[in-house]
Here is the input.
Amino acid sequence: MKKAAVVGMGKMGMVHTATIKTDPRVEVTAICDTSKFMLQALGKFVKGVRSYDDFGKMLQEEPLDIVYIATPTGAHAALAAQAAQAGKHVFVEKPMGTDLAEAQLVADAVAAAGVKSQVGYVCRYAPTFELAKKILDAGALGTVQGFGSVKYSSDVLRKVEKSWRFMRKSKNEGGGGVVNEFACHGVDLLVWLFGEPKGVTARKESWYSAEVEDYVHAIYTYDGFSGWLDSCWSMQDYRKPYNKIEVTGDNGRLTVTDSEIRWLLNQGHGGYEAGWHGRNVTDLYEPVRMFVGDIMFSRQAEDFLRYVENGAPSRSSAPEALKTQRVLEAMHRGGSR
Here is the structure.
């Protein structure tokens, strides 16, 4: 049985802890957070798990196989690199760092140590987007002519109070705004579906936040086609985070969201029949050990543990996430890659 620690006991730390604790192949033996209040509170409910407020001390004292990092983004890179250098397999929440240099630090540390890695781009494990990739990989739409995508939520609808998510990425705990903290999921899906673009241009705007952007519109160019992403966490008519991608090809069209996928093929191809087709996410669900937050988290955890155990490649390893980070960096610059 693998021994694991979870670092950062906020919302995502708790989701990951609850998810992996259901798996008989791994045991959570330690948690780490800089908040003594949080550690004391969790200690009342989580038995048999040792608590630390010092990451280095935990690495020295605990015989760990895996470290799960769910801290604010500003701490991702340093902690992930330190864990890798200590010989631990590393899961780190998205994005790997606040900029490309930090993400490269993680990727280099993982490669040098020869440990397994995964980055929390959980949307790659959504059943609807998974089917979209299969359809595109089969060439069913023919030659891609273009795409459009949105990533919206209503998280920020007034002047932002102090929070690490809304601080400049140059600050120690800063998140980097909507590009790093929210749009990155939509960007990662596009990189997964179409690969890295040849060129990137972007426009950012601050609607409520003083230090970071709340809105971004980016255009991506590829060989023979282009596409765009529009992302904002200040859309008041979106109660929950919303992903949507529309793809046009010379043999049809595909529209996919978190909850459904529809596609039209002029001619059958790649095992997919001609005509209109559609699936709801509930049609695509497969059983998982535990439903915590969303089925995606269970599938992500399963993928990482399988990678750790037998080397089956993870869908969102550090090298994969580095591709996404390069696009995020170009969006921050606003200019071409």
Summary: The radius of gyration is 20 Å. DSSP finds ten helices and 14 strands in the chain. The CA atoms of residues 43 and 51 lie 8 Å apart.
